[in-house]
Fold this protein.
Amino acid sequence: MPLSTRDLARSIRLRSLHMVYQAKASHIGSCLSMADILAVLYGGVTHHDPLRPDWPERDILLVSKGHAAAIVYAVLAETGYFDPAMLATYGQNGSLLQGHLSHHVPGVELSTGSLGHALSVGCGLAMAARRDGHKRRIFVIVSDGELDEGSNWEAILFAGHHALDNLTVIIDYNKIQSFGSVKDVLDLEPMADKWKAFRWHAEEVDGHDHAALTRSLSGRAAGMPGVVIAHTVKGKGVPFMEGKLEWHYKPPSSELLQQAIADIEAMP
Ligand SMILES: [Mg+2]
């Protein structure tokens, strides 16, 4: 019996927390920010088969913010791509599971971590699918901070021009990037208007509301690519991490790990 998306989100939050703690790694705030987006995508929206990662009929999901690898590995393990016991090797020498996403891991379609590249790859996949008469959808999760990279805007222009309606971008819009608030570093507002000007269908949702995410991600606009601007909270689920830049980098101490576990277990 598959987990509900709420239970899946809770599980991958907890797993990524343990992984980051054990590996003394960074990016737990980035992981927790997109837990609900991943849970909704893997828990029902995308067509995929964990037992056949290369199933030709699958939808394709690219996670451009490859530094949030821990929670992507967690959702892949939780949904059956590989043994969850492997998660304990995260960040260790010789492990497949390193701190940025690797396509050598079952279920990871594209190695990412150098920001600003996956959307262009997604455009190519969407164009190829259309030319092949393939009905798959292409999903790309991007961070807000990486939208500072000009390569994204070339891809956004291209997808709008070619009306790639099989392409959906989800922005994990947590308003914080590695060196400060998005508003202070390089303001992206008015976000939705920018995408609309490039001929995209844009929707804004609460990125932690599973029903709203499911509704927005299940549909697609005819004749244009879609962007779901998911308003999220960095570190969501652990109040002492929420909205705090330092948790882009810091792993929790053992005391704070226990507090964070309790906070996540108490989430509705
Ligand atoms: Mg961000």
About this structure: The pocket of magnesium ion is lined by residues 143-145, 174, 176-177 (CB under 6 Å).
